[in-house]
């Protein structure tokens, strides 16, 4: 129990120190992004999305707005590549993952961690309730095993029907990877994930799944779009 408390305290310390340092260093970039968003399209700078956090408590996850604000410009709940709702600046932000930098505010609030399962929407949590229960026992994160395994998820799902078994299998695989993290997480593994995330930003892909041990059933669940689902 004492070890777990110490580990949690160290993890929180790393979250706060790294988040504050990142915001301070990237402050000019954050301001430039905000100006570019406002200049490119009508609407606010930030987008708030309701996600489920630790203990199944909902919170507003912050991201830079990458889509049009027109409520009449509808579309699917999951954004795929070439989605017409994405703005010009938004495409750059999404491709470079810079749209997720406001997540650092969520980390400072204690709603997220730097490393952990990616927070999902209430609808998705309800649909995969048994698997999601264990994942909701920890703070969701900005990066994790899922992000390292699927760095270009929008391209992966570009031709996948969101109502198809292939998409459901993909979601289940992500949950299995998140569950693997929850079972075997440690501060050293978190630091390894952060390092590999930094490498991924310069196009050096590293899959850390083996560091957490063998997967149970996730490998057989990769989405394989077929002509019947496109």
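Sequence proposed for the structure above (230 residues):
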């Amino acid at each position: 129990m004492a070890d777990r408390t110490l580990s949690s305290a160290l993890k929180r310390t790393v979250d706060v120190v790294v988040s504050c340092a990142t915001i301070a260093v990237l402050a000019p970039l954050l301001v430039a992004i905000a100006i570019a968003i406002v200049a490119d399209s009508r609407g606010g700078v930030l987008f708030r999305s309701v996600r489920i956090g630790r203990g199944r408590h909902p919170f507003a996850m912050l991201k830079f707005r990458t889509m049009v604000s027109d409520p009449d410009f509808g579309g699917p709940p999951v954004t795929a590549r070439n989605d017409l709702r994405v703005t010009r600046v938004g495409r750059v932000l999404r491709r470079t993952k810079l749209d997720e930098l406001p997540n650092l505010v969520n980390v400072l609030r204690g709603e997220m961690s730097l490393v952990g399962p990616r927070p999902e929407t209430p609808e998705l949590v309800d649909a995969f309730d048994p698997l999601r229960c264990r994942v909701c026992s920890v703070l969701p994160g900005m990066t994790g095993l899922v992000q390292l395994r699927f760095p270009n998820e929008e391209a992966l799902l570009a031709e996948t029907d969101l109502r198809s078994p292939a998409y459901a299998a993909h979601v289940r695989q992500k949950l299995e990877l998140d569950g693997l993290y929850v079972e075997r997480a440690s501060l050293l593994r978190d630091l390894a994930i952060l390092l590999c995330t930094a490498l991924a930003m310069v196009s050096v892909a590293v899959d850390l799944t083996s560091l957490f041990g063998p997967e149970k059933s996730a490998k057989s669940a990769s989405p394989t779009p077929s002509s019947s689902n496109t």
